[in-house]
Amino acid sequence: MNYRMIGYLLGLILLIEAALMMLPLSTALIFGENVMPFIITVLIILAVALPFALFKPKNSQIYTKEGFVTVAAGWILLSAFGALPFVISGTIPNYINAFFETVSGFTTTGATILSNIEALPKGLLFWRSFTHWIGGMGVLVFVLAILPSSGGQAMYLMRAEVPGPTKGKLVPKMRQTALILYGIYFVLTIFQVLALLICSFPLYDALVTTFATAGTGGFSVLNASIAGYNNPAAEWVIAVFMLLFGLNFNLYFLLLIRKVKDVFKSEELRAYIIICAASTVAIAINTAHMFNGLEECLRISFFQVSSIMTTTGFVTSNFGLWPVFSKSIIIILMIVGACAGSTAGGLKVSRILILLKNIAKEFKRIVRPRSVNVVRLDGEVLSPETVHIATGYLTVYITIIIITVLCVSLDGFSFETNFTATLSCINNVGPILGDIGPTGNMYDFSYPSKIILSLNMLIGRLEIMPMIVLFSPSTWRKR
Questions:
Q1: CA 430, CA 423: separation in Å to the nearest integer?
Q2: Per the domain annotation, does 367 fall within a domain?
Q3: CA 358 to CA 346: how far, in whole Å?
Q4: How would residue 178 be classed by pLDDT, with cut points 50, 70 and 90?
Q5: How far lies 243's CA from each of 103, 253, 301, in Å?
Q6: Which of 138, 139, 133 has the alpha carbon at shortest distance from 218?
């Protein structure tokens, strides 16, 4: 284990966090608010990070294990220090609550413990939403984009952070890949800000709403979420951009290099669109009696399907009051999630396709034992290892959900509340059903439950393995 290189990379991550805090600090200055919470936090980060980041070790080689440890520890440290402005300002005086809120931000979950969001200073609300934008594409991808590094170590870092079962390089050099990913991310962000400005959003609201959409996070600066704006045009815009940020970013790259046919060959893309369209129509029919007219019914149904499937978590309707059929679709969408290689959470559509195709293959094998069957995705034969990894991921995923539901159930909430809270956190969705509902907050969960759910958010965002490696005793055992 290359401890010095891990320390160096973690120091860099914290320095980047300190630099990024200049944006909410500037926002606080513009609105005439107290900037000391940010200044003190930046000074603390510098004191901790500089001794590690100033001197790059001679042996800079890292492998898979170091990559996983760096990514998992990096995300925990980002959240740990990112929570300080909330605590220092007194806005969220309890550190566990502040940590939960910040983990929810960086992991793009969007679950909150706040009841009166609008009472917070604009600088802190900017930071709260900005954590979504930082966490959406991944801070390690950002590190790779701005710093030169060898392809080998970069690949190990990126593999540990980029979500989905089909990770790969867009171009031969990892730094170029990271730059392309962030370039696409930034351009889409700008387009949404402009679209919201056209919809009469104030600049500040357009920015923070776009940060939350881009990261598929869901934090809003209004207590009523997006419903509070009462702006149907903006709801259509946000719903469309949520879907766009839920796409595999490789597809945008293929469009840039004019390989349009390859884009439409994507089985994941086709399944993503079909699931979204079918869910929207089904919910619209099931809830038609609850809304005024066809446009409102379709808009709200499409918005909530887009929001939950992309694991953004914005709310324009209290879907906790919807019929059981519609709520069941919402829960299924929480689990499915969006595309691999996007900013969204969930199991991912491509992983679901692999699992379903593997089930079909096994069924054919039972019916026709002598036939040769393989699992294909986008016309390519998947290796048995890829299929095995997808199956193993599902097994661990279900195990974590069962354990978490049991632990959280000690708080005394209903099963629906505990189950959807667990699903919401591990899939990085945000809203829950049951006693609390999609318009409520998670303040009443106990501190142990908040810590467990925070770990679930991190596990879900990093797709399990980095967190398991970090906390596994064998990782730290000397050989």
A1: 9
A2: yes
A3: 19
A4: confident
A5: 23, 17, 14
A6: 133
Residue 254 inside a domain? The answer is no
The pLDDT of residue 474: 87
In which element (H, E) is residue 217 found? none
Residue in the structure block whose two tokens are 């995923």: 397
What pLDDT, in 10s, does the model give residues 209-224?
Answer: 999 999 999 999 999 9
Could you tell me if 108 and 311 are in contact, meaning their C-beta atoms sit under 8 angstroms apart?
yes
Q: CA–CA separation, 151 vs 60, rounded Å?
A: 12
Q: Is 225 left (phi over 0), alpha (psi -120 to 50) or beta?
A: left
Residue 329 is encoded by which pair of tokens? 């679709």
- Which tokens hold the place of 232? 């149907």
Number of domains observed in the structure of the chain:
1
- Residue 192 scores a pLDDT above 90: yes
The radius of gyration computed from the CA coordinates of the chain, to the nearest angstrom, equals 22
Between CA 432 and CA 438, with CA 436 as vertex, the angle to 5 degrees is 40
Q: Nearest to residue 420, comparing CAs of 412, 253, 429?
A: 429
Asked, for residue 173, whether it belongs to a domain, the answer is no
In a domain, 66, yes or no: no
Are 52 and 70 within 8 A, CB to CB? no
Task: Report whether pLDDT(335) > 60.
Answer: yes
Answer for the pair 451, 98: CB distance below 8 angstroms, yes or no: no
Nearest to 314 by CA among 132, 182, 85: 132
Q: What is the pLDDT of residue 1?
A: 84
Predicted confidence at residue 150, as pLDDT, reads 47
Full domain range(s) for residue 343: 265-436
